[in-house]
Design goal:
This protein is mostly helical. It has a domain of 25 residues.
Length: 51
């Protein structure tokens, strides 16, 4: 719901994951999340918030 999305952004979220409609969609979403967090995202090291 648009209201929920806007509320989450207002609280500091910067993205959201849409629910998949079937099992294959769920597996694809999990794979994309895994690729993002373990292969693409660069997280701060030792409290460095600059990226």
């Amino acid at each position: 719901m648009e209201r929920d999305i806007e509320g989450c952004y207002a609280l500091g979220a910067n993205t959201y994951v849409q629910k998949p409609v079937d099992l294959d969609g769920l597996f694809a979403a999990i794979q994309r999340l895994k690729e993002y967090w373990f292969e693409i995202a660069i997280l701060p090291v030792d409290g460095d918030s600059r990226g």
